[in-house]
Amino acid sequence: MPLLHAFDAYPAFFVTAVVVLSLAIGSFLNVVIHRLPKMLERQWRAELAEFEGREPAAAPRYNLVVPRSQCPACGHPIGALENIPLVSYLVLGGKCAACKARISPRYPLVEALTGALSGYIAWRFGFSWTTAAALVFAWAMIALAFIDLDTFYLPDDITLPLAWAGLLVNLSGVFTTLPSAVIGAAAGYLVLWAVYWAYKLATGREGMGYGDFKLLAAIGAWLGWKMLPVVILVSSFVGAVVGIALIVIARRGRHVPIPFGPYLALGGLVALLWGEPLVNLYLSAV
Q1: What CA–CA distances, in Å, run from 219 to 65, 138, 164, 176?
Q2: What DSSP element (H or E) covers 240?
Q3: Mind listing the pLDDT tens digit for each residue in 10-62?
Q4: Is 0.85 surpassed by the pTM of this model?
Q5: In the predicted structure, residue 172 carries a pLDDT above the cut 70
Q6: Which residues contact 162 (CB under 8 A, 6 or more apart)?
Q7: What gap in Å lies between CA 216 and CA 174, rounded to an integer?
Q8: SS3 state at 77
Q9: What 3-state DSSP class applies to 70?
Q10: What is the mean pLDDT of residues 89-111?
Q11: What one-character DSSP code corresponds to residue 82?
């Protein structure tokens, strides 16, 4: 196809197309981040009612498509021209077109982050299946990071399919060999599972959730077991720095929980993009 040939022949054209597409994906990720936890909560309430023998409360249809996006302050439906990634936010001055209520800057931030990261991935890996797989991985990391920031929860609806997808992607060795991916999935889960129980037995408190185990297992399935030390070191270091900063600067209590998922996601992205050079640098230094 002429378009595919153009992508292959003109890298700048391909990167630009990926950035434009990814801005739209970023807009969709905002919907996932906001709605998926609410959808799961509705599902849990319905299951609880069924378990208790009660009739689930009637509720209007609610999923990633329905209802149409609207202003949380006044209920104004968001039209197509008001939903252009980044552009609409800038044109509207970060305010609702109807009631002028402030729109959270988180929305354009997620869109910009998705576009910039996707563009770098397209430039880094070129027009290839590796880029397609890396984009799916990166988009999942962004969604999981922000959901965990909001809810302290990493939904199985993303982490488990992501783990299986990583194993399937590596059937052809896109990022690592299949044996390495399988070991990475198992080791990723078991490492944090062991840390969880060691901390709980020592302190009587839970230091992390099971979603963190599943996320690291998914990262291991995509990148292989050799990248797990990179992911753990990066996430632990950044998490420690942020935690100390919150305690010292923001006067946050030591026992106030901090979601670990965003740091695991960051570690996964660092391992995806620069993991191999970091591992080689370490091996050459020892």
Answers
A1: 28, 11, 11, 12
A2: helix 228-248
A3: 889 999 999 999 999 999 999 999 999 999 999 998 888 888 888 887 888 88
A4: yes
A5: yes
A6: 137, 140, 218, 221, 222
A7: 19
A8: strand
A9: strand
A10: 91
A11: G
Contact 226, 180 (CB under 8 A): yes
Alpha-carbon distance of 11 to 120, in angstroms, equals 12
The average confidence (pLDDT) of the chain is 90
pLDDT of the residue at 9: 79
pLDDT of 271 reads 97
Burial of 261-280, coded b for 16+ CB within 10 Å and e otherwise, reads bbbbbbbbbbbbbebeebee
Would you state the structure tokens that stand for residue 253, as one six-digit string?
């209590």
- Confirm if 145 and 260 have CB atoms less than 8 A apart: no
Q: What secondary structure letter does DSSP report for 100?
A: -
Cα angle 241, 211, 41; round to 5? 115
Residues whose CB is less than 8 angstroms from the CB of residue 47 and which lie 6 or more positions away in sequence, other chains included: none
| CB burial of residue 31 (10 Å; 0-12, 13-18, 19+) | middle
Residue 94 tokens read as 């970060």
Nearest to 212 by CA among 230, 233, 196: 196
Torsions phi, psi for 77 (to 5 deg): -65, 135
